[in-house]
Design a protein that fits this description.
Strand order of the largest sheet: 3-2-1-4-5
Largest sheet: 5 strands, mixed
Bound molecules: 5'-O-[(R)-(carboxyoxy)(hydroxy)phosphoryl]adenosine, zinc ion
Order of helices and strands: EEEHHEHEHEEEHHHHHEHEH
Distance between the termini: 25 Å
Number of strands: 10
Strand content: 15-25%
Radius of gyration: 20 Å
Shape: globular
Number of helices: 11
Length: 342
């Protein structure tokens, strides 16, 4: 079953053709350079860029897959969560195509895409990764941080989430305070690696003793800001790498603490991790080390692009929806849901 999938939830315009779990083609047009100097994604700029590029991105995905749109079996689209006016571009295009070519439509939650990113395969069916439910999922993106019980295909329960900033957002804001453009994660990771991830300043680990599986990163952000304010400029510039490193360690520590608590609470020890922050090598190392100690098993998205926003993961989640007959019944009522939860 071949699905054309579309994602325009944030700052990437993406289209993919998948066949079950296999990705035949995936095209991403990233707007990241357009938003860089603003410190985050500007919705109006995102919407315009999506509208400009969507047809080109879809046509490229079809062409790369060597398939005509007439021959796809269904069209999948992200309907939330995300930026309302950005989501709208993908949804309107998907509806138009579905109508024009008489295709069924599948509406996908962007976060379920990030979960399924772990099970996306290339055309040679790699990696194999059989499903072995239930899993715990750690979703760490620019706008979301949550721990989810992934019980079975399409069955999710959110066990904990951030009360304020997302982990990716914390990376972005911390990086901005150090003078780096959006997205901040790569800059922080690179600086931290220069000093072998030393935790020199020991910033607070928020919510460690809250007793639940929720996160909070705004307190860390504030203490980072005050710490920088009392430093003199020369000292700050000379210690950018230690600052970045200590900041990153605080974020990772908070994530690890809640992962451990989630395992204790649920008795489960199989994880999937997804979202932009999951590409971070220091995070991967610390999570894998913890997993070894705790006898846990952890999957990360198997190819680099799968950590970030992409339509391939949306298509693969859609394939499981199609299997269960979960098509959009009435296209006219399909609407964006910017705060859609799992
Ligand atoms: O999943 P994603 O591409 O978009 C959303 O759905 O939000 O995640 C983007 C986030 C940004 O906040 C970015 O700073 C973060 O992922 N990120 C990283 C790294 N690369 C991107 N965070 C930490 N380390 C990285 N290397
Ligand atoms: Zn995302």
């Amino acid at each position: 079953m071949k699905i054309l999938a579309i994602d325009t939830s944030c700052d990437e315009t993406s289209a993919a053709v998948v066949d079950g779990r296999r990705v035949i083609s995936n095209v991403i047009y990233s707007q990241v350079l357009m938003h860089g100097k603003w410190g985050g994604v500007v919705p109006s700029i995102a919407k315009r860029a999506h509208a400009d590029k969507i047809d080109f991105v879809i046509n490229s995905a079809l062409k790369k897959a060597a398939i005509n749109i007439e021959d796809v079996d269904a069209i999948a689209v992200t309907y939330g969560p995300g930026l309302a006016i950005a989501l709208e571009v993908g949804i309107a295009t998907a509806k138009e195509l579905a109508q024009k070519y008489s295709k069924r439509l599948i509406a996908v939650n962007h976060m379920e895409g990030h979960i399924y990113s772990n099970f996306v395969q290339n055309t040679a069916c790699n990696p194999k990764r059989e499903f072995n439910f239930p899993y715990l999922a750690l979703l760490i993106s620019g706008a979301h941080t949550e721990i989810v019980l992934f019980e079975d295909h399409l069955k999710y329960t959110v066990l904990g989430e951030t009360r304020d900033d997302a982990a990716g957002e914390a990376f972005d804001k911390g990086a901005r305070m150090l003078g780096f453009n959006y997205p901040g994660g790569p800059a922080i990771e690179r600086l931290a690696a220069e000093v072998h991830n030393e935790d020199r300043y020991k910033f607070p680990r928020p919510m460690l003793r809250s007793g639940d599986l929720d996160f909070s990163f705004s307190g860390l952000k504030t203490s980072f800001l005050y710490f920088l304010k009392q430093m003199d400029e020369k000292d700050k510039v000379e210690n950018l790498n230690y600052l970045a490193s200590s900041f990153q360690e605080a974020i990772i520590d908070s994530l690890i603490a809640k992962m451990k608590l989630a395992m204790k609470r649920t008795g489960l020890n199989r994880w999937v991790v997804g979202g932009g922050v999951s590409v971070n090598n220091r995070l991967r190392h610390v999570v894998r080390t913890m997993a070894k100690q705790e006898n846990a098993e952890v999957y990360f998205p198997p190819y680099k692009y799968l950590n970030f926003d992409n339509a391939a993961m949306i298509g693969v989640a859609a394939a499981y929806k199609a299997e269960k007959g979960e098509y959009v019944k009435d296209m006219s009522v399909l609407d964006r849901i910017p705060r859609l939860s799992l």
